[in-house]
């Protein structure tokens, strides 16, 4: 891997997308590639092979790429000026369960490598159901498409979910690890590609305003909310297997939590950052009475009737799967001992947003601080849809009196005129091609997150209580509110 000014250079390669006829490729991957190409952030030369079971031609796929970009890209399609981009795309029809088809795929890729002079470098993006991760990895290796020998490299990108529990995750990892080294396995979590998720470390470690206060001496508690307004949106079978705990907490929430709570790494290289995240995941602890789950029932939003989860397509009418989770998490380490972290995520909530709230301790009751209305300082890191930082502090109200009022500073990055925030998959694809795995999860991160989530699943397995039903369009079951009120706190709802 070559470097220029300390940054990894891009080398020519072929991106091979398994499952390219699916939703992920059309909504995320094709637009991300187009935006990278527009920004001059793809290697030269570079080609894309879309693999699917449907009978198509390369011309049809190129038309689909245009449609995808026109519909989902943050940048407009340039028409004739984008012909060079389209010429990079090819289609290969394959049933990836058919072993013999991999010999033909190897021949096809070999021909393209000679044409494009990519030197054998390949990225395999597995946009397929998780049960096929092991099958494809194994066949790629056995048919000579993942040797990782000489000067060429082959990397595999795996979408979530990585397993259904710790045991299945271990089995899957063992299969993939036999054929790809850990440095060439990229377990993707798109939340880590979001602009403000990447900004958490900068906000903490590049500002003396925050880092000295980022501990149990000054922080009262931390809240994290990942709220969605939609239901399962036709993904009933998947959600019946995963639920909110596996779909959101095991990956997105714990990864963000690790960034918020980690110690300063000794360096900004990939492994140093990952080492500190693992320490956080190892320190997590939770008790049965600190877990709340719920499932959305019927409700209304803007006069529209919303069906209950159990009435959704291909969902059991007696399902006990959770669509809402709230947790009170503690950390057994020196920095955060005694500081609760409150996490919640759910579907069919009133607003769609993701944010992290750090509430600082109140000052002693002397001088101005005897004022009962004086509130704590609050820092909000907004991940989506707004991207930015909100800080609430206290100041004197203008006038002759001595009234103290809360005032705010609000920085919204994607609200600035002319700013067009890159999508998460742009950064993630860019990093995979460069060989930078900092924003991807290492196996021990996956392992410890599953240990924590499995512990919660065991709490529920042993419970005889019915799952609480909350009306669609509300903030979840009442037990979620009680989780904080028992500690004398409340959820802070999308502060303005």
Summary?
This protein has 496 residues and is α/β, with parallel strands linked by helices. The chain contains 12 helices and 19 strands. It has helices spanning 23-38, 58-72, 83-86, 101-116, 133-142, 166-177, 195-205, 236-261, 270-283, 424-434, 443-461, 478-485, and strands at residues 3-4, 7-8, 13-18, 46-52, 89-93, 122-126, 154-158, 185-187, 219-227, 284-285, 291-301, 304-306, 324-331, 341-346, 353-360, 378-384, 388-396, 404-412, 469-472.
Verbal overview:
The protein has helices spanning 23-38, 58-72, 83-86, 101-116, 133-142, 166-177, 195-205, 236-261, 270-283, 424-434, 443-461, 478-485; strands at residues 3-4, 7-8, 13-18, 46-52, 89-93, 122-126, 154-158, 185-187, 219-227, 284-285, 291-301, 304-306, 324-331, 341-346, 353-360, 378-384, 388-396, 404-412, 469-472. The chain is of the alpha/beta class. Strands 9, 10, 11, 12, 13, 14, 15, 16, 17, 18 and 19 form an eleven-stranded mixed sheet that branches. Mean pLDDT is 91; it is low at 1-7.
Key attributes of the depicted protein:
alpha/beta, eleven-stranded mixed sheet, 12 helices, 33% helix, 22% strand, globular
């Amino acid at each position: 891997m070559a470097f220029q000014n300390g940054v990894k250079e891009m080398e020519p390669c072929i991106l091979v997308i398994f499952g390219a006829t699916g939703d992920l490729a059309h909504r995320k991957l094709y637009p991300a590639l187009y935006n990278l190409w527009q920004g001059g952030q793809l290697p030269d030369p570079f080609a894309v092979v879309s693999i699917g079971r449907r009978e198509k031609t390369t011309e049809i796929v190129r038309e689909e790429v245009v449609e995808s970009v026109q519909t989902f890209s943050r940048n407009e399609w340039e028409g004739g000026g984008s012909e060079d981009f389209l010429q990079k795309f090819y289609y290969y029809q394959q049933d990836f369960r058919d072993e013999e088809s991999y010999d033909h795929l190897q021949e096809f890729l070999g021909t393209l490598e000679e044409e494009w002079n990519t030197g054998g470098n390949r990225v395999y993006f597995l946009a397929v159901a998780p049960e096929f991760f092991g099958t494809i990895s194994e066949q790629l290796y056995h048919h000579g498409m993942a040797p990782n020998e000489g000067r060429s490299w082959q990397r595999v990108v795996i979408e979530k979910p990585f397993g259904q529990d710790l045991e299945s995750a271990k089995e899957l990892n063992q299969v993939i690890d036999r054929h790809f080294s850990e440095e060439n396995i990229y377990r993707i979590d798109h939340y880590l590609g979001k602009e403000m998720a990447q900004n958490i470390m900068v906000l903490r470690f590049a500002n003396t305003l925050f880092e000295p206060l980022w501990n149990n001496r000054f922080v009262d508690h931390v809240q994290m909310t990942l709220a969605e307004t939609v239901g399962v949106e036709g993904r009933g079978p998947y959600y019946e297997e995963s639920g909110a705990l596996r779909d959101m907490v095991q990956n997105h929430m714990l990864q963000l939590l690790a960034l918020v709570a980690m110690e300063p790494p000794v360096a900004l290289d990939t492994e140093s950052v990952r080492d500190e995240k693992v320490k956080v995941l190892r320190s997590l602890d939770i008790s049965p009475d600190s877990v709340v789950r719920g499932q959305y029932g019927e409700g209304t939003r803007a006069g529209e009737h919303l069906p209950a989860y159990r009435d959704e397509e291909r969902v059991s009418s007696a399902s006990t799967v959770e669509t809402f989770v709230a947790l009170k998490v503690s950390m057994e380490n020196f920095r955060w001992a005694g500081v609760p972290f409150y996490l919640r995520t759910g579907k069919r909530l009133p607003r769609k947003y993701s944010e992290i709230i750090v509430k600082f301790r109140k000052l002693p009751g002397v001088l101005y601080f005897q004022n009962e209305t004086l509130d704590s300082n609050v820092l909000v890191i907004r991940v989506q849809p707004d991207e930015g930082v909100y800080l609430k502090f206290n100041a004197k109200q203008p006038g002759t009196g001595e009234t103290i009022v809360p005032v705010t500073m609000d920085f919204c990055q994607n609200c600035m005129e002319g700013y067009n925030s890159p999508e998460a998959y742009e950064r993630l694809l860019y990093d995979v091609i460069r060989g930078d795995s900092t924003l991807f999860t290492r196996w021990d991160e996956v392992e410890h997150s599953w240990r924590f989530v499995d512990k919660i699943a065991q709490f529920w397995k042993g419970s005889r209580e019915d799952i609480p039903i909350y009306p669609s369009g509300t903030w979840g079951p009442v037990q979620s509110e009680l989780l904080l009120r028992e500690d004398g706190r409340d959820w802070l709802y999308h502060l303005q």
